[in-house]
Structures are given as structure tokens and as C-alpha cells.
Write a structure and sequence with these properties.
- There is one protein chain.
- The chain has 3 helices and 4 strands, in the order αββααββ.
- With 118 residues, the chain is an alpha+beta fold.
- It has one domain.
- The chain has a 4-stranded mixed sheet.
- Helix 1 packs across helix 2 and helix 2 packs across helix 3.
- The longest helix has 35 residues.
- It is globular.
Length: 118
């Protein structure tokens, strides 16, 4: 097999893997969105998702972990660009972006407070 063919296979595999990751992310988002609407998951002042209720199935826990891991990466990158801590970037995201996207009936947890329904 020629080097050109190997590179083509690698590039093709990368596209397939990226597509699979996007589908998995989409599935996680759909699970989390449904859980937010049901009052199981809410948004926290640190910019991460949290469980409003103690009970959640393993698939939902995995979806929340996946979304939170993606957010953590974004907060680290934003922190590095802006000379702040990742925690400050997460709190800023909560204050400027996440709160604005909360839908009526969804839960949020402000800093130092308990779960509140919008």
C-alpha cells in the first residue's frame, strides 16, 4: 500500500471518528436537555451541570459528565486566553451565557444558593 493510500485511510478514519463523536455529543445533549426539562438536571453558578435530584440513570450521568468535560475544556481555553482561572471563566459563562438560555421551568443553582426553578 502506498503512503498516499495510508494517509487517505487515516484521514477517512478521522472523519468517521469525528462524525461519531458529534453523534455521541448530540445524544448527550438530547439526554441532558430532556433531563433539564424534567427537573432532574440543572445549571450551576460554576458553569457546570448538576443533579437537582439525587437519582439518575447511568446513561444520564455519563451524558452530564460528557457535557461537563466539554465545558471544562472550553473554560480552560477561555481562561488561558483571558488570563483568569478556569473557575472564573466558568462563572462568567454562567452569568453571561447560561442564565440567558434557561427556559421556564428549568432549574439553576446560584452561587451560595439552593436549586431554584425559573
Amino acid at each position: 500500500m502506498q503512503a498516499r493510500d495510508v494517509l487517505g485511510l487515516i484521514a477517512g478514519s478521522a472523519v468517521v471518528l469525528a462524525g461519531a463523536a458529534a453523534v455521541a455529543q448530540s445524544d448527550a445533549k438530547a439526554r441532558v436537555d430532556a433531563a433539564k426539562a424534567a427537573g432532574i438536571v440543572g445549571e450551576q453558578a460554576d458553569g457546570f451541570l448538576g443533579f437537582v435530584t439525587g437519582a439518575a440513570d447511568p446513561a444520564l450521568k455519563a451524558a452530564v459528565s460528557e457535557i461537563n468535560a466539554g465545558r471544562a475544556q472550553v473554560y480552560r481555553e477561555a481562561a488561558a486566553k483571558n488570563g483568569v482561572s478556569p473557575e472564573a471563566a466558568g462563572a462568567s459563562a454562567y452569568n453571561t451565557v447560561i442564565q440567558a438560555k434557561l427556559r421556564p421551568g428549568e432549574y439553576y443553582k446560584p452561587a451560595g444558593g439552593g436549586w431554584t426553578r425559573k
